[in-house]
Specification:
The complex is a heteropentamer of chains A (487), B (667), C (536), D (170) and E (100). With 667 residues, chain B is an all-alpha fold. Helix content of chain B is 73%, strand content 3%. By secondary structure, chain C is mainly α. Chain C is globular. Chain E: One of its GO terms (cellular component) is plasma membrane.
């Protein structure tokens, strides 16, 4: 039972986790750079991170179309993981771009922010790429712990503290369930490698094996918590509201996608045999999530909180596609998470710009008159809002189209109908922002804020990303299809 | 052969376009008036030529369709812009363009100095155009175009003095009431078109085609439905019960309008239409009886109102309604020729009467204006003794009055007597004939009475106009008097083209020209009647007796009028005070307008208001907004689940886990 | 030019790009560019009219792949036939008028306004020419956005309520249609349909129960847009608050989307359901006619009155469509155009006086004829066209609708609907009388100016069209006829009903054949009466 | 009933009682100390399960490191008792939910079917080769990646703790 | 099997007690300790399974869970300190700025 080192190294293909390695190394380097470069402004760290993120992206893309596993099957590089890695990198890149202006304004411009964002990204990427319960768990925890820090990053802000604390306690609590679930799965199958588990599921009785079934559901709850599905969603509004805005943006896009990535892999690879069971559950949760998210968002004045509820609702839409269990719906999730990253971070970028120190002006009413004073900014916000609302010709529409199509294809007509009705209700609160921006005069003298270059870049990218895939979605959709097909 | 027929409606249309578009620029009244009159006169010339051509044909071929272009065609439905020239339409052409020309000429004088002079002539030309379409259209739809067109012009011309609210109201009333009739017309058209096509595969609305296939129609049944619908149309246009109330109000329009539209031409469209569709009407005994009874009732009813009116034009208006009733009696008893005959003679004498009254009003108005009096120039109580100021007007007016009263030798006598005789003797309605005849005769008595009351109050007796004004009264200019003379002449002699056979035989076999002339038009109807109705033989003596009775009735009416308004003028006042309620009721037109307001207009408005405020806003929109409110309220409630307390959140998570696990454990 | 349709449709977007480069303040330039764009678009649409071959085929077709992913394939598939031809022309015809109509009324944010108008034009044209269901849906939804802004930014006092109501109301309907659309597509994939092109779906045999649901979803979306009673309540609000151009476009073109949707999609795709729903829709249409007329009668606001009159008019159109015979559908399509012209003109007219007096209350007016004779004449003509006086356009359409309705199974409905002609006269003329006739007693009205050259220039084309369509509609009808025949053919229920097939299907196929043959001669009995062949 | 069963029962009683004390003690310090006791019980279980290395790590990491950190924090913040009154409905609802969880857990645990032993790790092997070595081999072959990830995880935790707990510099 | 089940039941009991603690306590640190208790229960499950299956993967998992628990403790306690610095309390009732 000696360890054959040569043999061990044969199992290791670093290329598979090269993007993660790049980001980790970069993160550590930036920690050092931050200490040794005596610059008050931390903007350069943002640019450095961005370069790393783009680099990681390029490295990641090269593996498209292939399926290579490494580390004794504990991690894999396939189109599915690459697609999600792109989403995470995108979210991280955009978050990095909009952070500096916000953090400088809020006086918590600590250079550690960027490494932590990068480590979070590493965690998310591992979640998407992991083929071992343990790797999934560690990826999840790496992501979560970093996010706890990011949520409470503005330590002088009571709201930020509160957000961090709530996120931490509830996150850790949900981890308990997740682990219990994993323990049960392990107990029934005797392994943590999901490929092996998958092979054993029917052998141990499939859905008839209660312990396995419950293990699956408990594991699922852990991910449902991350994607903010009802009734595991309650942390979302508070944390989103309290966390620093760029981090909220990041949190709303990245971890949600990561949660879906892990869930997709778990349910599609490991438990396809129990589709009847999980599909039923997700059906109900989708309805619940959409409804709770949308209906509560209707009554929100605080725009961050409103977007938090809206993000719950969007998780619900994705669950619609998930519940369908069809390739259409699944690819819809991938596409939707990508476009959601664009449009939601875009919207938060606008919030970053509008906000003042301490965010005393976080309500929808504070957007009154924006359409006349900053037409371009308002136009961008309009694009994001319409995209979130799912109006053609935005990416949001195509995404929803595929999600609901999946449901229809699987015969869940009512689910699709509830989905579209929810979507119609959601239009009200997205339109409300537009109403204030364009149809109401601004009350006071308008403060001219500057739009820093990184934020402007983020806005342009987000707007383009919300709009262009709405008009020519074919390519992205095909990528999403391939990604889903390959797992 | 009749290639130039399209010119007939074209001239007035051109006149309308010139006056309507450029009239404001032209400004010169003479030119505008001339254009208007010339347009109609040109039509008249062409009409005469057409008429001559037509009677040159053998009587069997006197029905010519001239297609101009295809108007619309969709599926089985096809309608052309095409004209039908036959004896009936030709007769109407002559009447319309002839009288039209005269009235245009008259209007040049009458409307002198009015604001919007050009507008008046434009409308008048447009009216003539529409009327010509109505009478020459070879299919129901084109007829309907004219039908609505004349209604529009009537609306426009009644509302000519649009700044007067009453004028606007009257115009609207006329249009809406006509629309009610049009509704019937449309339904009739639809049913006719559908039934024939459905059952016999003949999809047509063309008159000649329909007439050709008349024998396919059954007696009664669907034909009753169709014809009653058409008759509803006719009551609207021709002001019969129950849709007659607009006509008296229509007197708000300038007098030439009353003469042309509301006496001579438009209002007779209903009669004309029944004549056109005689082959169909005759096949429904029920409808025929309805037509006759409604006509008789209207004749009598309107006449009663006419006896108590003081406005000179209103008297004439009710008289018109009453006379139209006669025409409908004629149609309803199968005496189509007689009906058309009365239409024609009535056009002559009633146009003359209206124009005469117009001359009087014109004169009165001028006189009152001179002394800055605001007395009503149309109120007969302000008149009296005008004959010495306006002798020519008086003469023509008198001739026409005698004609309408039914004094033998004048045109009205022939036509009216023919109708009454047919009402009495026709084979269609059995014992109801007596009722129809009785009402007709009573109406004749009242007609003679109120018409002579009118003459006596206006032209005879003492002059009651405000002191100082009488010296400004004067005879009208030639441009006004000339049409009067022509029309009076026609009223005098017009009856001789339709001398009843009985009289004609006495005078050496003078034929009934009109009956001969119109024979092909009504051939189908007459054949049918001959075949299906049992003809009772009536002796000549009975006919003579009734004719004599008519004459007696006419003279009795005149005598009563003379007694009451010349010999002992205090009797009417006594009568009024003896039966105040009756007088008030008659004076207020039996409160029919009020009844309509109460029964239809107000409920409609209330219903509309209720539907708007009560239903649309409250219920329909209420549901919509209610859903929104419920959603919002729901959102407002469930947001409080979000307490901000971590243990609640944790509890909710645990709850979720427990429910999920529990569900799958106990499933 | 083979891609003339695309050129026409996206010309306004070119205009938008131009507008973006014009500085904000220069209103004159902005307006001119917008006007020129719309005029050029109109000119670009003329070759379509002249090049149109009178047959039932789709013409000027452009069909290129657009999206292809997963089970779906959407194509950029556009083309026109007799049904959409005139609506396209109507759109390009109305747009310059709409631009001109608010030449002076909109002083604020002209650039944004014109951009909205032009985007709207593209969206509307796109919806009319789409032959791909998905593409249609995109354009259909896209229309909402600029209109939402137009009402919301340049609208009246209560604009927020109106515009949000308009948006969500129409969205709810169309989203359900989206679900139905997807469902339909998946039904199609079972029989080998591989993309959203409309033509594929005509041959789809869908069982009646499914058709019922699909039709209901489609019909709801279209009925909201039409709008039919009882989902009409957004219309009065939207119309009242919208700026003139918005009202004109809304009435003249956007409402047509609803009826267009019915005839293009709902009816031919779901023939059985169409027959099944005919009584219901006809009932709602007739209720709409009478109800809207009664409500219109008592309105105090001219614009609201006109809005309700739209509901009544569109009721006629719906009745005509569901007569399901050539006369009815021809009439309905014609009435579509007529309503576009007449009601568009009415809204322009209301706009004129609103611009002068800043009120639309009927009681604020009276006797305007004296002060504004030209206006009075134009108003009169348009009013008469709206009450369907023969000789004007309104009559031809309405008459054909009623004839068609009478010939079809909807006879009794048609009889009731015919009474609408009375009500129309009542409310329109009463309104006209109160506004234009009577004493000119309000001192504010005594200083009113008559229409200026621009305003007359706007109205003249509409007036011309009122008479052209009224007097010589046949060229218009002729171009539509083949397509209408085709739609009717699609709408016709197959002679062998599914129930009949179901029984022998159990038996061997050889035995099943004779009953099917026997069933054919029985068919005319079940067929609606109107479809009997004409005798001549 | 053999001696191991008695011992198991004894440990179980201690573990559950101390766990209950964690939940019920008013003073956080008492809770913390009870928790330490629970950890010891768990270590005992691990030892009974033939996992001596895990028992050691349990003591060192949990009882040693984590609990010290917690106690340190409690002392640092000088927290004595729950300042606010407990709301009884919270306790009731929480307890009910916890008990239901327990019941359900009992159900699914007893109903489940566990794989028969699949691995080759037997008591003999552990005794022969040593638990630590076995663990080490598996960890550095099959679970090398997770192991590496923990390094980043800990780094983040350190950096995060520093960032969060640092007092404002000004 | 008996043996395994005993351990599993014990761990389930401990897990439930932990859950009850999280749901009933208001002191954030105590809540965190209860979460630790839950994690330990899971650990016990893992080890019991591992032992039963004769497979060390479960114990490796426990090892990582411990690491994560340590990391969480570090971050969590730092968070509590930050919160305490601002609010002078560690009671979660005081974490109620954001709600509804």
């Amino acid at each position: 039972m000696d360890i054959n080192v040569a043999q061990l190294f044969q199992t290791i293909n670093l290329n598979v986790i090269m993007p993660e390695v790049i980001l980790s190394v970069l993160g550590m380097a930036l920690l050092l750079v931050n200490v040794f470069v005596p610059s008050k402004s931390k903007g350069y760290l943002a640019w450095l991170s961005l370069i790393g993120i783009i680099g990681a992206g390029f490295v990641a893309v090269t593996g498209w179309g292939t399926t290579v596993s490494s580390f004794n099957d504990s991690v894999v590089q396939d189109s599915f993981s690459i697609f999600f890695k792109m989403i995470f990198l995108l979210a991280a890149g955009l978050a990095v771009l909009i952070s500096d202006q916000y953090m400088s304004r809020e006086d918590c411009n600590h250079g550690e922010l960027y490494p932590i964002i990068l480590f979070t990204t590493v965690g998310m990427m591992l979640m998407a790429a992991a083929t071992d319960l343990m790797t999934i768990f560690l990826g999840l925890e790496l992501m979560s712990i970093s996010l706890y820090v990011l949520a409470g990053f503005n330590r002088d802000s009571i709201k930020s503290n509160e957000a961090g604390m709530k996120y931490f306690l509830l996150g850790a609590f949900s981890t308990g369930f997740l682990l219990y679930g994993m323990a049960l799965i392990y107990g029934v199958t005797g392994t943590t490698r999901i490929a092996k588990i998958a092979g054993l599921v029917t052998q141990v009785g499939g859905a008839g094996n209660t312990m396995l079934l419950i293990g699956m559901f408990l594991t699922l709850t852990g991910f449902l918590f991350k994607i903010a599905a009802a009734p595991f969603h309650m942390w979302t509004p508070d944390v989103y509201e309290g966390a620093p805005t760029p981090m909220t943006a990041f949190m709303s896009a990245g971890p949600k996608a990561a949660g879906f990535a892990a869930m997709l892999r778990l349910l599609l690879v490991v438990f396809p045999a129990m589709k009847a069971e999980w599909s039923d559950l997700l059906w109900i949760l989708a309805v619940l999530t959409m409804t709770v998210g949308n209906f509560t968002a209707l009554r929100q004045d605080n725009i961050k909180r409103m977007l938090a509820y809206s993000s719950i609702a969007h998780a619900g839409y994705c669950l619609v596609g998930f519940a369908s269990g069809t390739a259409t719906g699944m690819s819809g999730i991938l596409f939707y998470m990508l476009s959601y990253t664009f449009m939601n971070i875009g919207a938060f970028a606008v919030i970053v710009l509008i906000g003042k120190k301490g965010e005393p002006n976080g309500t929808v009413m504070d957007y009154a008159g924006l359409g006349h004073k900053r037409p371009l900014l308002a136009l961008a916000m309009t694009v994001f809002m319409f995209s979130l609302a799912g109006m053609p010709p935005t990416a949001g529409f195509i995404g929803k189209f595929y999600l609901f199509s999946g449901a229809v294809q699987a015969g869940y007509i009512w689910l699709a109908i509830i989905g579209v009705l929810n979507s119609a209700a959601s239009v009200y609160y997205y339109l409300r922002v537009i109403v204030f921006m364009y149809f109401k005069p601004g009350e006071e003298e308008f403060d001219w804020f500057n739009v820093s270059a990184p934020v402007a870049l983020a806005l342009v990218v987000s707007a383009a990303g919300s709009l262009i895939p709405g008009i020519i979605p074919s390519l992205l959709l095909q990528f999403a299809q391939q990604a889903v097909k390959l797992i | 052969m009749f290639d130039n027929v399209w010119l007939i409606p074209l001239f007035p249309l051109i006149g309308f376009l010139i006056n309507g578009l450029l009239g404001k620029k032209i400004k010169n009244e003479t030119i505008i008036g001339s254009i208007g009159a010339l347009a109609v006169f040109s039509s008249f010339i062409v009409s005469v030529l057409t008429f001559i051509k037509l009677i040159g044909l053998p009587s069997a071929e006197r029905s010519v369709n001239i297609k101009i272009f295809t108007w619309m065609t969709a599926g089985t439905f096809n309608a052309d812009i095409a004209f039908l020239i036959d004896p009936l339409s030709c007769l109407m052409l002559l009447v319309v363009t002839g009288i039209g020309t005269l009235i245009h000429i008259y209007s040049i004088g009458y409307m002198h100095g009015e604001e919007g002079f050009y507008r008046f002539f434009a409308y008048l030309n447009l009216f003539v155009f529409s009327m010509l379409l109505l009478v020459t259209g070879n299919n129901l739809l084109l007829m309907f175009v004219g039908w609505e067109g004349v209604g529009l012009c009537s609306y426009l011309l009644i509302g000519y003095y649009f700044h007067k609210k009453s004028a606007g109201d009257a115009g609207k009333k006329a249009f809406v009431m006509n629309r009610v009739g049009d509704f019937g017309f449309l339904l009739g058209t639809f049913t006719l078109f559908w039934w024939l096509g459905q059952n016999h595969g003949i999809w047509t609305i063309q008159f000649t085609e329909l007439a050709k296939n008349a024998n396919l129609f059954p007696t009664g049944g669907v034909v009753t439905v169709i014809t009653l619908c058409f008759f509803l149309g006719a009551t609207g246009k021709s002001a019969q019960i129950p849709l007659y109330t607009w006509l008296p109000d229509a007197m708000e329009g300038p007098t030439p309008v009353s003469a042309l539209i509301h006496a001579a031409t438009m209002v007779t469209a209903g009669v004309y239409m029944i004549g056109r569709m005689s082959f169909l009407f005759i096949r429904s005994p029920e409808t025929m009886m309805t037509v006759a009874v409604v006509g008789a009732c209207t004749a009598f009813f309107a006449a009663t109102i006419g006896t108590a009116q003081n406005d000179i034009k209103r008297v004439l208006a009710y008289s018109t309604v009453s006379q139209l009733g006669y025409m409908f009696i004629g149609m309803g008893v199968g005496a189509f020729t007689a009906g058309i005959f009365h239409l024609m003679t009535h056009a002559f004498f009633k146009a003359c009467l209206f124009l005469g009254s117009g001359a009087v009003i014109h004169s009165m108005h001028g006189a009152l204006h001179h002394i800055h009096s605001h007395d009503d120039a149309q109120d007969m109580r302000n008149m009296g003794g005008l004959k010495k100021y306006m002798p020519l007007t008086y003469a023509t007016f008198l001739i026409s009055t005698i004609a309408i009263a039914g004094v033998p030798g004048f045109s009205g006598f022939f036509s009216k007597d023919e109708i009454l005789w047919q009402a009495f003797s026709n084979p269609l309605h059995g014992s109801v004939n007596m009722l129809i005849w009785g009402l007709g005769a009573a109406a004749a008595l009242l007609t003679a009475f109120y018409m002579f009351r009118l003459v006596f109050m206006t032209f005879h007796g003492t002059c009651r106009i405000k002191a100082g004004a009488e010296k400004h009264l004067h005879e009208s200019p030639m441009v006004i008097v000339f049409p009067l003379l022509v029309l009076a002449f026609l009223a005098l002699v017009g009856g001789y083209i339709g001398i009843p056979k009985l009289l004609g035989d006495v005078f050496g076999g003078i034929p009934n020209y009109l009956e001969h002339y119109l024979e092909p038009v009504f051939a189908n109807a007459n054949e049918y009647m001959a075949a299906h109705a049992h003809h009772a033989e009536h002796s000549h003596s009975l006919e003579w007796g009734l004719m004599g009775l008519s004459v007696v009735i006419a003279f009795v009416g005149i005598a009563i009028a003379y007694t009451l308004y010349m010999a002992s003028p205090e009797i009417p006042k006594k009568f009024t005070s003896a039966f105040p309620a009756l007088h008030r009721a008659v004076f207020n037109k039996w409160y029919i307008d009020e009844l309509y307001d109460f029964m239809i207009v107000n409920p409609c408005k209330s219903l509309g208001r209720f539907l708007w405020k009560g239903f649309d806003v409250l219920v329909v929109d209420g549901i919509v907004n209610g859903v929104a409110h419920v959603v919002m309220a729901f959102g407002g409630v469930i947001r409080y689940m979000q307490t901000g307390q971590i243990y609640n959140y944790a509890w909710s998570m645990t709850f979720g886990v427990v429910v999920i696990i529990g569900y799958y454990l106990f499933k | 030019m083979s891609n003339i349709l695309s050129v026409m449709t996206f010309l306004p977007i070119v205009g938008v790009l131009l507008l973006l480069f014009i500085p904000k303040g220069s209103n004159g330039a902005l307006r001119s560019v917008a006007l020129v764009t719309t005029v050029v678009t109109f000119i670009a649409s003329l070759p379509i009219l002249t090049g149109y071959q009178t047959n039932a085929e789709y013409q000027f077709v452009e069909n290129v792949p657009w999206i292809a992913a997963g089970p779906f394939a959407m194509r950029y598939n556009i083309g026109i036939d007799g049904i959409s031809l005139w609506l396209v022309i109507l759109t390009t015809f109305i747009m310059p008028i709409a631009v001109l109509s608010t030449w002076t009324a909109v002083e604020d944010k002209v650039k944004e306004y014109m951009i909205c108008l032009l985007i709207l034009e593209t969206a509307m044209l796109g919806a009319f020419i789409s032959l791909d269901l998905f593409l249609f849906y995109i354009f259909w939804e896209l229309m909402l956005i600029p209109m939402y802004f137009m009402i919301g930014i340049w609208g009246g006092k209560n604009r927020l309520y109106a515009t949000v109501k308009f948006f969500i109301y129409t969205l709810v309907g169309s989203l359900l249609m989206l679900v139905a659309l997807i469902y339909l597509y998946f039904l199609g994939t079972k029989t080998g349909i591989t993309d959203f092109s409309l033509v594929h779906f005509f041959d789809l045999k869908i069982d009646p129960a499914t058709q019922t649901w699909l039709f209901a979803a489609f019909a709801l979306a279209f009925a909201v847009k039409v709008p039919m009673f009882p989902v009409h309540t957004w219309l009065p609000d939207a119309h009242t608050e919208a700026p003139t151009a918005g009202s004109v476009i809304l009435a003249a073109i956007m409402l047509k989307m609803g009826t267009y949707g019915f005839i293009r999609f709902a009816m031919p795709l779901f023939p059985e359901a169409t027959h099944q729903f005919t009584p219901l829709i006809a009932t709602l249409a007739v209720i709409g006619i009478i109800y809207a007329a009664l409500v219109a009668m008592v309105q105090e606001d001219v614009k609201k009155l006109v809005a309700y009159s739209s509901v009544a008019h569109l009721g006629f159109v719906m009745l005509g469509l569901f007569a399901l015979n050539e006369q009815g559908i021809t009439g309905a399509l014609l009435q579509n155009l007529n309503h576009g012209i007449s009601t568009g003109a009415l809204f322009l007219i209301v706009g004129f006086i609103y611009e002068r007096r800043h009120t639309r209350l009927i009681t604020d007016f009276g006797g305007l004829s004296k002060q504004m004779p030209i206006f009075a004449v134009i108003f009169m003509i348009v009013t008469l066209s709206s009450v369907a006086l023969p000789g004007t356009n309104g009559f031809v359409g309405e008459f054909l609708i009623l004839v068609g309705g009478f010939e079809s199974s909807l006879r009794w409905w048609t009889i009731v609907a015919s009474s609408g002609v009375i009500f129309a006269a009542v409310y329109m003329l009463w309104m006209f009388q109160r506004v234009m006739f009577g004493e000119l007693d309000n001192p504010k009205n005594q200083a009113l100016l008559d229409l200026n050259a621009r305003e007359i220039a706007i109205m003249v084309p509409l007036l011309v069209m009122i008479f052209v369509l009224g007097v010589y509609p046949n060229p218009f009808i002729e171009k539509m006829t083949p397509s209408i025949k085709k739609v009717i053919a699609h709408t016709r229920i197959e002679p062998v009903t599914t129930a009949k097939v179901a029984v022998p299907a159990v038996a061997p196929a050889t035995e099943a054949a004779p009953p099917a043959d026997h069933a054919a001669p029985v068919q005319p009995v079940t067929e609606p009466a109107a479809e009997k062949p004409a005798a001549h | 009933m053999d001696i191991s069963s008695v011992f198991f029962a004894l440990v179980t009683v201690v573990a559950i009682v101390s766990a209950l004390m964690v939940v019920t003690c008013k003073n956080p310090i008492n809770s913390a100390l009870s928790l330490v006791l629970t950890f010891f019980c768990l270590a005992t279980y691990y030892a009974m399960l033939n996992a001596p290395f895990m028992a050691a790590v349990q003591i060192i990491v949990y009882a040693g490191a984590i609990m010290v950190l917690i106690v340190f924090t409690i002392m640092l913040l000088n927290i004595r008792v729950d300042a606010n009154k407990k709301s009884s409905h919270q306790v009731a609802l929480g307890s009910v939910m916890g008990i239901i969880t327990l019941l359900l857990a009992g159900l699914f645990l007893t109903r489940g079917k566990v794989m028969q032993p699949v691995g080759g790790i037997t008591t003999d092997m552990i005794n022969k080769l040593g638990h630590t070595e076995l663990i080490g081999k598996v960890m550095f072959t099959d679970f090398l990646l997770p192991f590496e990830v923990t390094s980043i995880l800990l780094l983040v935790a350190i950096v995060g703790a520093v960032i969060l707990a640092k007092r404002k510099l000004s | 099997m008996d043996n395994l089940n005993n351990y599993l039941i014990v761990s389930a009991v401990l897990f439930s007690i932990g859950t009850i603690g999280v749901l009933t306590r208001k002191n954030a640190i105590v809540m965190f300790m209860c979460i630790e208790l839950m994690l330990n229960a899971v650990n016990l499950t893992f080890v019991a399974f591992s032992r039963h299956l004769g497979n060390l993967d479960g114990q490796i998992f426990v090892f990582f869970i411990m690491t994560v628990a340590a990391a969480e403790a570090a971050v969590g306690l730092a968070m509590f300190i930050a919160f305490f610095n601002n609010r002078e309390s560690i009671d979660i009732d005081d974490a109620n700025l954001m709600k509804w």
